[in-house]
Protein 1
Amino acid sequence: MLNSVLVTSPRYQYLFELGKGALYVCLSALLIFFLLKRHEKQTAILHEAILHSQELYRIQSEVLELVASGADIRKSMKCLASGIEQLSREMLCSVLQVTEDQKHLRTLAAPSLPAEYSAAVENLPIGPEQGSCGTAAFRKETVVVSDIASDPLWTNYRDLARRHGLAACWSTPVISRDATVMGTFALYFRTPRSPDKAELELTEFANHTARVAMEHDRTRRLLARSEEDYRNLIENAPLGIYRSSRSAERLLFVNDAMVRLLGYDSKEEVLALRIRDELYVDPAARKRAYDSLKGNTVADLELEWKKKTGPPITMRAVTRQLVTEKGEQIVEVVCEDLSQRRALENRTEQANRLEALGRLAAGVAHDFNNVLMIVQAYSDLLKERFAGDASAEKHVTQIQGAVDRAAKLTAQLLAFGRGHARTEAATDINAVILESVENWRRVLGPQIQFELQLHPEALFCGLSRAEAEQILLNMMLNTRDAMPDGGKVTLKTDLVIADETAKRLRITISDTGVGIPKEVLPHIFDPFYTTKQKGKGSGLGLASVYGIVQQHDGEISVTSEPTHGTTFEILLNVVAGVGEGAASAQASQERLSTKVLVVDDEAGVREGVADWLRRRGDEVYTAASAEDAIVLLNNGVLVDVMVTDFLMPGMNGLELARAVKAKHPAIATIIMTGYADEDLSEGREFLHVHKPVELPALSSLIRKAREK
């Protein structure tokens, strides 16, 4: 009832409404208060988030600025790790990078981790159960370890982590755009814990920043390595390389090979040269070379350039033209010195020509020796028949003198054509020179000075003494004729390195004479080629020297300039110094009748030798071919000695000798030759003699063969 009264009473109703309004006001004020507090908190959170974002932006900006400036990757990663650590005192950051072998991780930055711990995990293996970082790099995914003490991934490193107060670690792999793992970013904590959403987002942010930096570092290192490889390729290339432009007066770049090609000591010297006037032999040739290039083309040119000293060089220049954005024409050129190739081609051409001439000369000598053998044989018969007739003997002596002179000419032809069997000797070239020097002084005459520069030790070569004397005498005569008004000859011997295991004997003969014209040089070893006056030379001197040297696997070369003298250089193989041996004892003069088979396809030779031997009391059989000789022997003809020509149609003399020896080992064989297509040193088990041979000497050789 009281409530009814109060409610219905106007006074109390007023008070009630007033209280109700006051309550609403209080409630509203309280609501506004709570709303203001909530807004303040949200504002603080928003403000903190803004500050956090600004800090992350600052960290990222600093890292990227270091990356852009080319700073070392360690410096930029330390900046990243330190910045992240400043956001929370609980976090310890680590940035690792994959090593070159793609099997380990090395530390780039760990500013707050204990140094001993970082050293212990340096070169951390990538694989399962290799802690958080090694496993993350292996799996290519984020690995979260909330409690290191109990997680199996840390079995091998648990004690190490405990010693340094590390309880939790989560790591994320830094993966490039081509899906290659470049490293890891990790957060360590000193208490066991799992990451919250913000920390995972922070890890992702740091990972992204590290990826940008590492990719840039990888690109920079690859570029640097590529540039280094390119630089090494260019600098160490065996061919000359340079760069120039149409507008520049000097070269823009040269490599070491180009410096050597031009004969200079440094790049600076070459780069200081004016291209048009100091490099090109013909200054106008530079413009012609540029004009031959059209657009971005590659051209194969020949350039003639000056060297620092000596004659110019002809270069093959493979040229590429580039046009820059500014329209400047740049050329990059690879050069090859054609001088050596041309010289080699010339030597090869000369060797081929001389070989052909040698075959021709030796063939002529063979046929001529057969003719001389006939003349020699019948002159010996005439001399014996007309013994005591002074007039007849005089005529025969003239014939034999002519034969001797002709034989010497054919000997020179055979020496050039390598038709003689190669001798196996050991001659001290210094001894031959010293014993011959006085004779050479007389040959050279008083107007020519002679100087010797001999190697201090004995130098043995494979030449026979006669061959050595022939070579040196021909060279002396050649130098004398080159200095009609006098001059100086220098003869030098020394040793040069042929390869890592062998040396060669070098003979150098230099004169100060008139020199040899360029057009003559390629022909100086040709037989019968001479620039001397008629009657002053046969044209076989240098040809025979060339043949003997070639026969002994040697080399001979010549350099000369008109009015500046000539230098010949001979290289020979060094042999053991055993000497040539003592001369053989004189053949026994006791006359014994010998059964002889004479085999020669030249009837004049065959019958002349047979007639001589019959007059000496020998029993002689003849055969016109090797096949006829075998038939005679197989039919029961018994002989002591067989004298056979070497070069015959069908079976040659060496083949015949071996066939006879196999079936009739008691028969001794003498091989005669006017020319040997193959080296008779292969038949050293047989005696041999070169046509034309004096018949008394042949008789002595037959006695020797029988006794042997």
Protein 2
Amino acid sequence: MSTAPVHGPDASLPTGHWIVVADSPFLPARGGGEREHLGFVRAASRAGLLSALVIPTDSDAAAVGRQDDLAAIRSLVAPAPVIEIPRTRALFRALQLRTPYVVASRPVPDDLLSRISEVAPDADAVVIFSYKSHRIGRALADGLELPVVLRQHNLEGPYHRSLAAAAPFPRSVAVRVEAERINADERRLEQSGWLSGIADISAADAALRSQRAGVPVRYVPPFALDSLPIDRPWKRPTSDVPTVVFLGALDVGTNHDAVTWFADAVWPKVRSRLPTARWSVVGRRPTDAVRKLITTTPGADLHADVADPAVYLHAAGAAINPAVSGSGVNIKLVEYLATGVPVVSTSRGTDGLLLEPGRDLMVSDDPADFAASVVSLLTDPDTAETTGGNGRRTALSLMDTRAGLTTIAGLLAGPPNTTAAVDEPGLDDCEVVLVSYRSRQHVQTLLDGWPDDLAVAVVDNSANADGIADLTGRYRRLRYVSGGGQGFARAANLGATSSIKPYVIFVNPDSRPTAADLLALVRGLAADPRAVSHAATVTGADGRVEIGVGGWEPSVGRLAVHAVGLHKLLPRAGLFAEPQLGEPLTPGWTTGACMAVRADLFAELGGFDETFFVYAEDMAFGRRARAAGWQCRLREDVVVAHGAGSSGAPSAEMLRLRGASFAGYLRRYHPGPRGVLMRGFFAAGTAGRMVAQRATGRSDAAALSRALLTGTLTGRAFVDGVEVARSRYDEVAH
């Protein structure tokens, strides 16, 4: 096992004296959660951050079916002290109404504060690892008046629901009841005033939690890499027997679901093309059901409770992560990627990590496609080695333990203590970016209404067809940039990344924000430590808030609500936001029609996704921001009139572009059957509206709906006769 640090070249270590509260002993580290515990404690100890380690332990090892190596833990963290506190597994702990058993069975000893004060008098922060020990962490926070960060492994409520679904009756009923208590307790915890922040192991969990939590949430990738054998990278085996491997704890319901799906739906298709292929299932404590499944599956071999699972990983031509249930990050996937073995996974299995399907690993939810990917990796050496190498490099880059410790330290420090009189930005700290497509008249109207000292960058996407470059001689602070006709996302990024101002404000040429509006957005953003952007509420020609000023991440449920028109009755259950004037709303993303961003953070997040020529780039930016723990704010107090698209190409073209971009978004971020179903709902809803519009004589509206439907179904759209949607997707996404 490697003990080498996983450090990024430019990261610097934070300083501090942290009390780390584990949820249980983690050596020997057999499972994913234990390896994650080990990686974090090792990284914190090596960085000199560990002041004390608190561990709930069982006095009777036989009662929990494992023998913990506390001596090894003490040696690992020395000279920091280890404080053991007893777990209480009594039945009455499960009968408390508000406190779930997993929390109640870890009570706070009366002498905990005095023991900590004696052995770690210099402690200045607490990190709780994980949810199960949050009562212990709160006791330390309140008693010692220290900042606290909670390291979350999962969205605990949904995770325990998945365990309930996999459990046999009647145990499933008891687990489901516990899951609901955990979910309620977790939601209360997310609003706790004593927490400084939450560090989620999963990007998807961080994005969801950041929308509902009352404390800052950041995505901090797994530390498990620091406990895995990364020094010996995978090399394609020389054996003539094509072998695929699955690693995992075989007494966990989610892993049972995974191997069952693969055995029933995928493996027969692999064997039909590769009759000599073998499947190695490697893990601890296999249940009778798992043993029976593997015994009755042709070509499958069970390797239970082995000393070194890495032996089987290095002997395989590919690894599989066929997750069909559960939440959070599959640590097995981290291990696969770190080793460099090429991987095929379901989309659920990759939800928590910022990986690129088709490059870092193969991703499919369709059994036939999953099987084809396995066969490809087993039979094509170049594809296997390229995929495995890309995955390893991405894993080592993403899961930089030093960067993770720095993010947690930032949460512990809290937002900067700024003083408005000193740090409040003015117009001189901003630059407006106007992406223009034959919009000279609109741009000139805006410039005439703004003060001369406001910096403005015009990114021209029409090759100066309207003579807009001539305006640079008339306006002192105007900067002309050629956008090359490459669409809004690419042009906006060009304008933002070439700016030297700390704040950039994207403004559609046909919107009408005043200088006061722009300043309100920037000053609100500067005072909001959790936000990456503040966007104005834009209104149409009728004075009503435009639908699409923001919205939420697409899901099957939201698309179904949108398709049948229920969003009119349930406005927060659909896809696009349409709040009333002055109505507070926290969407997952906001429109870029009038939006201020922190320039450095915008660049750090990769800007707008250039996969999209126009449209969906704001939705994708919101997704990136949420994954990194940031929020996109919609300002109900800043209302800006908008010209409803009069600054772009003809509206039918733009509607077709909107449909094609949304179809591309689903392909990129929701691959597989779920994405296809969502696209079908969107198309069906658009088709229904088109029929209704025709029936009521609204032929112009029906034509626009037809253009939207065509773009959605084909994924193709044109500007001036040139296809721009599918070609851009193929250029960037692939």
